[in-house]
Design brief:
Elements: E1 2-3, E2 6-15, E3 20-28, E4 31-33, H1 37-45, H2 52-66, E5 69-71, H3 75-86
Antiparallel strand pairs: 1-2, 2-3, 4-5
Helix pairs in contact: 1-2, 2-3
């Protein structure tokens, strides 16, 4: 998936019965500061519900807590990418 010319790649494993994320990998040609920001998000998204509102709330919480900034991608694009994996 591309966002403003940037590549966003999301690999998702989830439990279809419980609708929970088992594992997620987010990559692409964008940047996060601090550099480990994406890894922190991936780690904290494990075992959470695959629901747009819940994902937004959880990712917003992680970003504020860890003071993560993105260059080349935004939260809405990441959430949209995650939900597209479910289809």
């Amino acid at each position: 998936m591309a966002h403003n010319g940037k590549l966003l790649k999301i690999s998702l494993e989830y439990d279809e019965n419980k609708n929970l994320i088992n594992n997620i990998k987010i990559s692409g040609d964008f940047f996060a500061y601090p550099e480990e920001g994406i890894e922190l998000i991936e780690k904290e998204l494990k075992d959470i519900y695959l629901n747009e509102e819940y994902l937004k709330k959880k990712i917003d919480e992680i970003i504020k807590k860890r003071k993560i900034q993105f260059i080349g991608v935004d939260i809405d694009s990441i959430i949209k990418g995650i939900l597209m994996c479910k289809k």
